[in-house]
Predict the structure.
Amino acid sequence: MSAENVKKFISFDALPGFLARAAEKNAVYVPRREGNAVVYRSFKAGDEAELGVRPTESCKHVVFPRGEELFSFAREADKEEPGKRRLVLTEASEPGAAVVFGALSCDARGFLAFDPVYNGSGTGGTAKDSYYLRRRNRTLIVVKACKNALNTCFCNWVGGGPASPQGADVLAVEAEQGLVLDILSGEGTAFTESLPAASEAQLAAAAAAVKAAEDSLPKAADVSAAPASLAALFSSAEFWNKESAHCLYCGACTYLCPTCYCFNITDESDGLTGVRLRSWDNCMSPLFTLEASGHNPRPNKADRLKNRVGHKFSYYPSLHSGRFSCCGCGRCIKSCPSSVDIRKIVLDAVKEAANV
Amino acid sequence: MSEQTGATAARPVYKAGTRNPYLPMPAKVIEVITETPTIKTFRVVLEDEQLMRDFTFEPGQVGQLSMFGVGESTFVINSPPTRKEYLQFSVMRAGENTTALHSLQAGDTVGVRAPLGNCFPYEKMKGKDIVFIGGGIGMAPLRTLLLFMLDNRKDYGKIRLLYGARSPQDMAFSSELPDWFGRRDLECTLTIDREAEGWQHKVGLIPNVLLEMNPDPNNCVAVTCGPPIMIKFTLQALEKLKFAPEQIYTTLEKRMKCGIGICGRCNIGDKYVCIDGPVFSMAELNAMPNEL
Ligand SMILES: Cc1cc2nc3c(=O)[nH]c(=O)nc-3n(C[C@H](O)[C@H](O)[C@H](O)COP(=O)(O)OP(=O)(O)OC[C@H]3O[C@@H](n4cnc5c(N)ncnc54)[C@H](O)[C@@H]3O)c2cc1C
Ligand code: SF4
Ligand code: SF4
Ligand code: FES
């Protein structure tokens, strides 16, 4: 066994100090309670991390901020031609290093849905999104395995699991009043260097915890036919009207989703200076596709819900080696004000398409 | 099979280490032409001389024009790559950014992100007769390809242009029309929707005039662009004239932001208009979900 494969251990007592030390060099994000919600927020010495509760939102904002500056612009006085102004564009400065400690396994997998779109490696575009990539490359992700599944969880339908290591630098499993840490990357090795190796008893307890978590998930439904089924139902207004009947197109599902990656680009200015920003956008809004002429290719909520589900379970897989761009976190189900359930839509589609 | 269907141009490839794709290149407006009450043409030159010298694009590719502080929007580069003194964009006033663009004057600075998108498959069109059918501002993308073909005239067969607008005042590129009419290697037909005083050309809707022209579909390619309603009836007319879907090309419009296949705004199913388009053959469109 190479040194890298040695699992480490950190007790809950030692954790605050460990995170405080990490926060000296990195922006550290942990799940923290804010009112009724648990959200990923930056950690400083003395803060408390909520590692037992599932965060209401995903941690995508650490790598893909809700709003971020692309560049600033200014019209400066031209030294060579007095009276004239010269346009100066300045790219946003480089972000620092970050750590997400206690990400859900589905949240870490969410970044894997972003990656091929933003790094130009998929069969979509080939452009590289430097803003995303530089944050992504400087963010270390410590996944905290879930202890048990909620009734909205379906990560196992889409290739995940409560202790899936995919997308993680370190996988932490709760055992014996602490966390057993499985080190999965070079960055993870450096991050956990100061910690002791886990004992046999701790390893055994962690393995049992993973088993219990996996067993708590109901058997996965087979959604392999979803891409073809959704494509076949594209023109079925009846199907989509029915599935979207209760949707309020509030967009909560898109903002909470770890794999929703669409953005808007807007300018903010104050006379001669300003910034170009990009910010999360929401395909459930009719404004998303509204053209200047007044024409809208997706005027109805049925068109928009169809696009959201279709993208995750049909279009994206067709562009990215069959991988679904839903990681099964269930947030859109849990937080939807009208109980729209993406699992039901996908299963209905598979059933309906089989009948046509 | 795939040889026959679809635009041949691959998706644009961004080489590793090239510019930040979101950062516009500052460009100087060298000339503004008022085409119609709602359309202005801007000729621009990239301020960085090296960038301007190295700038290459293909007919049909588009660019994003920035008014800093207002925003960005998409326009086809309607000058051909064979004429590189400037890049030309024609902008119809539609909303916020296009209104701001209309305030530009010669000497002002604008931001350009280009080239974006695919292009007309002009290689595959070599040796063929070409019919251009443009309506209103839809003439802009056709102008690029038309001038490109005129600059490579021997590569193409008979070239015809049918260009329509609501009224003579709504006809963009009118200062170029005498030149186009004067050419013996280009057959021009103009039409307006309704009778107008002094109008010497056709009167009638584009699809009807097209049927009258009755182009022979044999070894011919039709390239059309214009408002959705005109496209719809023009496609029907082309079908009546026995043009196969593989022989018809058009360009699509979708609301766009990034222009590079990332922001997720412009998809039709698994196709992104900003990278798979804007140029599509009718055969390709028929294979796509109907969400235009
Ligand atoms: C591939 C392509 C080529 C085009 N070529 C031309 C051209 O040569 N000449 C021309 O006059 N117009 C062209 N258009 C349409 C032009 O992009 C829109 O009219 C313009 O974006 C409207 O911007 P606005 O700010 O004035 O409108 P607003 O309604 O204020 O729009 C706000 C923002 O929405 C987006 N948007 C709105 N409508 C459209 C639209 N139809 N297409 C793309 N983005 C939109 C833009 O980002 C815009 O800045 C083209 C569109 C596409 C997609
Ligand atoms: S599905 Fe639910 S959360 Fe999403 S937009 Fe509709 S009502 Fe809102
Ligand atoms: S679509 Fe719903 S279940 Fe799937 S990743 Fe997004 S929020 Fe989670
Ligand atoms: S404009 Fe962003 S994906 Fe096409």
Observations:
- Residues 301-319 of chain A form the longest helix (19 residues).
